[in-house]
Amino acid sequence: MNALAQLAYLLAAVLFILGLKMLGSPKTARTGNLIGAVGMLIAIVVTLTDQKILDFSYILTGLILGSFLGILLAQKVKMTQMPQMVGVLNGFGGGASTLVALAEYIRMGGGLTSWNQADAGLGVLIPIVLSLLIGTVTFTGSMVASAKLQGAMRGAPILYPLQKQSNAGMFLLILVLGLFFVLDPTRWYLLLIIIVISGVLGVTSVIPIGGADMPVAISLMNSYSGLAGATTGFILSNNVLIISGTLVGTSGIILTSIMCKAMNRSLANVLFAGVGADYDPNAAATEQRTVIRYTPEDAAYILESAQSVIIVPGYGLAVAQAQHVLQELVNVLSHRGCRVRYAIHPVAGRMPGHMNVLLAEANAPYDLLFEMDQINDDFQNTDVALVIGANDVVNPAARYKKDSPLYGMPILNVDQARTVIVCKRSLSPGFAGEDNELFYNQKTMMVFGDAKATVTNLVHLLKE
Ligand code: NAP
Fold first, then answer.
1. How far apart are the CA of 388 and the centre of ligand 1, in A?
2. Which ligand 1 atom lies nearest to the CA of residue 450?
3. pLDDT tens-digit readout, 123-144
4. Could you point out which of 84, 307, 366, 424 has its C-alpha 20 to 30 Å from the C-alpha of 163?
5. What pLDDT, in 10s, does the model give residues 398-434?
6. Alpha carbons 151 and 463: distance in angstroms, whole number
7. Sequence-ordered list of residues with C-beta below 8 angstroms from that of 210, at least 6 positions apart, any chain
8. What distance in Å separates the CA atoms of residue 168 and residue 157, rounded to the nearest whole number?
9. What is the pLDDT of residue 417?
10. What are the catalytic residues?
């Protein structure tokens, strides 16, 4: 049975890796997700049966209950709420690692003076300390991150004197306590102190991060939850947990670094700079500048004669839920013989892949979706750049304004198109709080209004 279980674990690990690989492209992402889920199902069933933990009725009840909750959440949670949803799930992963580590310690006779260190050895004691530390930090940190994104907590960074130093102090203290525990594993109370300090550390590490930077923190927490899982795998001597935890840990780190790179910021800047703490959302909007207000009729007139259009979707598209009607606009324009493509900036929206997921929901053909590097040089030969609810990712200040939070971030070159049409509700800045030069450009047509209403209007006008 053990050999069979190890073989099943190997199969599960292969399915995880295959699934992850397929998640790399929108075309294969759905199948990849399914393959990963099948791998997880195999791993869970094999673990429960191999360890004779539960009989089949419990396994079945757990499966049905878990699937029901999963389907319910998938249907209820809106796309714009997905980052906080992922945050909560990461937190549960971290919390589970903490509980398993504690349970294993108790099962091995923890807390009893009869504890024999040789029974467990350093290979188990060190992972117990690490699991408690990483798992608890992930749990409380993820809950704070989700609360900030959900608006249950103030999104602005919360800063106080000696914040970084006190966090570093807590971390060191945990390591010292961990060392004392490893030297004498009967000191069970040290583990409880480690859990409490780790819980506080999770909170104090996340509160200085601004609400809009939270997706990066959530991606980092995702990585932590994987690491916590992997260390728990060492405690349990469970290979599939070590492999899957490591996969989550490393892919989380890769995603975090992709997001930081796309925002042209270091991870340290995201985690410690407190961006947004002194941001006044009204400051940029009150500046005395004028733009010409165009109507959807004006925009439809330009689109009617366009041979080529590149659409740039942004966070506003998700807020307005305009993806379906936008795809309808693409169909209408294509039908008229216009070449239409989507340009996707790596950090458009509020989480990685946000725009891809939205457009996939609207059945936008994958071959119309282009990443920034693939399409950026084409704007200069394009009749119309149609910007829908995007702001920072098309802000030219990123190229020249050295004191801007956007400075250095690669942007989509929409200002190189012959005409730019921007659909948003007002002149308000985007997440970075930076006024957008593009709105005042001679060739930009600002069409104010909700993205869904505006695009619906455009579809009607072009169909007439
Ligand atoms: P953005 O700069 O936040 O701008 C979105 C714009 O959408 C706003 O200016 C808003 O203007 C408009 N909007 C909101 N609701 C709308 C509606 N119902 N109809 C029409 N327009 C609406 O968005 P972005 O250009 O997509 O840039 C994303 C930003 O998030 C970047 O700064 C990026 O660094 C940051 N970020 C992204 C990630 C990620 O993983 N994707 C992670 C962390 C941070 P109005 O209020 O005037 O309508």
1. 10
2. 19
3. 899 999 999 999 999 999 999 9
4. 84
5. 998 887 878 888 899 999 999 999 999 999 998 878 8
6. 40
7. 155, 156, 157, 274, 275, 276, 277
8. 18
9. 97
10. 392
Separation of CA 319 and ligand 1 centre (Å): 9
Distance CA 339, CA 333 (A): 8
Distance CA 25, CA 42 (A): 24
What is the amino acid identity at position 121? Answer: G
Neighbours of 162 (CB within 10 A): 9
pLDDT in tens, 170-199: 999 999 999 999 998 889 999 999 999 999
**Cβ contact 105:173 at 8 Å:** no
**CB-ligand 1 contact for 430 (6 Å cutoff):** yes
Q: Which residue has the tokens 């992972």?
A: 127
Identity at 319, one-letter amino acid code = V
pLDDT tens column, 204-229: 999 988 766 777 888 889 999 999 99
Query: What is each CA distance from 326 to 305, 439, 454, in whole angstroms?
Result: 18, 21, 10
Using alpha carbons, list the distances in angstroms from residue 222 to 10, 37, 39, 164, 250: 23, 17, 19, 22, 10
Q: What is the pLDDT of residue 62?
A: 84
Q: Identify whether the C-beta of residue 138 lies closer than 8 Å to the C-beta of residue 228.
A: yes
Q: Is 276 in the pocket of ligand 1 (CB under 6 A)?
A: no
Q: Is the CB of 253 under 6 A from ligand 1?
A: no
- Tell me which of 387, 424, 435, 456 to substitute to probe ligand 1's pocket, judged by most ligand atoms within 8 Å of the beta carbon: 424
- pTM to 2 decimals? 0.77
Q: Which of 266, 347, 437 to mutate to test the pocket of ligand 1 (most atoms within 8 A of CB)?
A: 347
In the prediction, which pLDDT does 279 show? Answer: 46
